[in-house]
Write a structure and sequence with these properties.
99 residues; mainly alpha; rod-shaped
């Protein structure tokens, strides 16, 4: 069996420097990826809390709008100020006729 000679060429100083820079960038990217993962989990948790809050607010607004609808309908059934004054005058006039 013939063994092949593997040439292990020594890297030049600029190649070693480039390799060190790449390792530094790689380690910093690992930190960034880890931070993004943590932020993603935090955002998901807060989004869930926000959804719960929004559902609660939607429910309360729906209750308020239902109550306003009832109040509006009750007010429509009541006599307005002008109509009341006219009716009051008619009652006074009828009472005077009886006397």
């Amino acid at each position: 069996m013939i063994k092949k000679k593997i040439n292990k060429k020594q890297p030049s100083p600029s190649e070693r420097h480039f390799g060190v820079v790449l390792e530094d960038i790689d380690s910093k990217l690992d930190l960034v990826v880890g931070g993004v993962g943590i932020l993603d989990k935090k955002i998901d948790r807060h989004y869930g809390e926000f959804q719960e809050f929004r559902n609660e607010v939607d429910y309360k607004f729906e209750a308020v709008f239902d109550e306003l609808h009832l109040i509006r309908n009750e007010l429509k059934e009541k006599v307005g100020r002008d109509e009341f004054l006219a009716l009051e005058k008619r009652v006074i006039a009828l009472e005077r006729k009886k006397i």
